[in-house]
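A further point concerns the way the authors explain their paired sequence and structure data. Since the whole study asks how a given chain folds, the encoding of that fold should be made plain. A single example would do more here than another paragraph of explanation. An entry of this sort, consisting of the sequence and the corresponding backbone structure tokens, reads as follows:

_____
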Amino acid sequence: RLLAQFFPAISFETIYKIKSLAGFGHIVAIVMFLKEAGRELIPAKLLTFVSSVFGGYLLFILLSPLKLYSYIELPFVVLESVVYIGIVFLLCRSLHKKRYGNLGRLGLQILICAFGCIAVTIVEIFLYQNDFLPARVIGDFGSLSFVILTSLILVIRFSDAYDTIEAMSQRLLNLDKIKDEFLLNTSHELKTPVQGMLNIAEAALESSNSPANTRQTEHWQQIISIGRRLTNLINDILDFSRLKNREVRLQMAPVDIRPVVGAVLDAAGYMLPPGKIRLLQELPETLPAIVADE
């Protein structure tokens, strides 16, 4: 009626086709909704069959004239009522067997009420149009209830998803905290034996510091260099943990950069193949000190 009032140039057949497409098209949309929300509650093959049958009828309505498809409209109205009643039955059976799918018990109960409302509304429309009822009693209340109840299901699902994400985020934060504590404790446990090995190597280097033991001296120096690198790595892990907890306090002071660069070059020199690459420090003697953390 509204289309006829606002668009008087549209023919009656076009308006009736739009009405039929809207009347039978919603069941295809509902079947697609059930495929996603109730995939464990209703057999997927049954939903595919229903969507195929009504999808084919919609295509038939779109391509055929009014006189042709209106002859088989009544059987599809009856089939639509049967489909909704069957959906309510299958959902009730799933509730009885305690198979709630991803909706949960409350969501499944609401879904049963929603489809019960729309099924009663469709049956009432069928009885009214075929003169079995003098007037519609429920009216559009059933359709409105269906929309409200399905919207409530979506709200519950979004709320559950938010709670799940929040719980997973809290679990990840706890795991990250456990990881930091593990690294911190492991670093503390490693620092003492590494420092002890470093002291032993330095003492052995002092006792073997003679021209006859040049090769052995180089080995001890390499052990000391690797030990210092490992000590620095442990200190970096400790500093990283302190940075995350905002416990690092920088001790800013003037620092001569040349000894620092020399130490880095000495540590890197043991990682290079002998005789192929040389690392040289060419910083001027007049280079001023920089302010940095000691």
Notes: The chain has nine helices and two strands. The chain has a mean pLDDT of 79. The radius of gyration is 40 Å. The longest strand covers residues 252-255.
